[in-house]
Specification:
alpha+beta; ph1033 like fold; 2 helices; 8 strands; globular
C-alpha cells in the first residue's frame, strides 16, 4: 500500500555562525554540526530550515543572536563536498528565500522554543531542533520572508 498523501514538511532550526550560514546561502546549500551527516539525515526535501547564529564568526563573542537564513530543502539526498580548507563535509541543497536577518530578542517570549525558558540557549547546543509551525511563522514574519505553505 502506498501513501497517497506526501509527508507534511517539517520545520527545523539549525545553529551555525553567521559567516558559515552566509557561505551556504551564497552557494545554495546547508551544513550542520561541522559537516557531519547525522543531522542532515533527519531532514527531508520540502522541509523548512531556519538558521540561528549566536555569533558572526565560529567561536565569536559578539553575541549576534539572530536568525540569519530561511529556506526550503531541495530534492536530493545529503552529499559530500569539501570545505574551503579541503576537509570533507556533508551538505544538502536549499532554496534560500529572500529574507533579512532578525534578532531573536524580540521573539523570546513569543516562541514555543524559548518562552518561559531562562536558559533557552542551552537546547541549541545540539545544532538542530524541530520547530513548531507557529514558531516558523513568527520567525519568517520577523525576517520578512514569505514561506510557502505546503
Amino acid at each position: 500500500m502506498t501513501d497517497l498523501h506526501p509527508a507534511i514538511p517539517r520545520s527545523w532550526l539549525g545553529v551555525a555562525s553567521a559567516a558559515h550560514v552566509r557561505i551556504g546561502r551564497e552557494r545554495g546549500f546547508m551544513r550542520l554540526n561541522h559537516g557531519k551527516r547525522t543531522a542532515l539525515g533527519r531532514i527531508r526535501p520540502g522541509d523548512r530550515i531556519v538558521y540561528y547564529s549566536p555569533a558572526t564568526e565560529m567561536r565569536g563573542t559578539d553575541r549576534l543572536q539572530s536568525f540569519t537564513a530561511i529556506g526550503i530543502v531541495r530534492e536530493g539526498e545529503p552529499y559530500q563536498a569539501e570545505m574551503r580548507d579541503g576537509t570533507p563535509a556533508w551538505q544538502r541543497d536549499v532554496m534560500w528565500l529572500p529574507a533579512r536577518e532578525a534578532p531573536i530578542a524580540p521573539l523570546l517570549n513569543r516562541l514555543e522554543l524559548t518562552a518561559g525558558k531562562a536558559n533557552w540557549g542551552y537546547q541549541l547546543r545540539f545544532g538542530l531542533l524541530e520547530l513548531s509551525a507557529d514558531d516558523l511563522a513568527a520567525i519568517a514574519g520577523a525576517m520578512g520572508a514569505d514561506v510557502p505553505t505546503p
